[in-house]
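Q: What structure does this chain adopt?
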Amino acid sequence: MFDKLAKLFIGDRPAGTSAKKKEEIFLIDFISKRSSGETIEKAIVNFPLDSLAIIINGEEKPFDAYYVRNEGLSSDELYFRIATPKYKFWILPKDLSRFMKIAEKKRAMQIENRKKQNKEFNANLNTPVNYDSITDEIYKCFITGKSGTNEICTPEKFEEIESQISAICKSKNGRYYKSKSKSAKYAIIFSPYSRLNSNIGRLREEGYKVTTLERALQHFGLYHLLDYELMVQKEKEAIDYLKSRYC
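A:
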């Protein structure tokens, strides 16, 4: 059965080759998932050479190669046990060198990608944010970045904010949308962690003007519904955390 399945995936080519050398292929007897302890037996594993993916029996997933550790021979001395953050692979000695080579290549790719992402994130954090001026189109709006905001206001208080914004929009022949809508004109950002140039840019690309909850509430005459000093404090804490984490 395993041989038939292998032939379905890789044809008559020997393991480790591909028609245009776009991937490395292994036939691995045992793979254990470190989170659950589940064992996958007789697996066909593909490593695309140009991505950080792993394909196990046809199912593609991200391959976390933050570390690749050879834990030595198995108790029966038939396999080398190779540990990564999510998986442990039982590798035959004949495949060890090739497997470690591709795994280390994936690790180098991951490190390089992380450096690139951190550089972009650093530039993102250190570029001043510019919001759109508020016009009468604000009466067709929705609030985004709602998660993780309980420290700023309670769910009950947020429901009150939404209710009053909705009433004002309706009185102005507009509409407050509970979630993102193509009919909305403004995206109102709540969470301090969502106030990044990249996020604002995406919202603008989707056709929305962008402002913050504080600015919107001031425009609506609902200034009293939010603790502005706390909001300023939380926004500073968010930026400081993100800089310490990614910059």
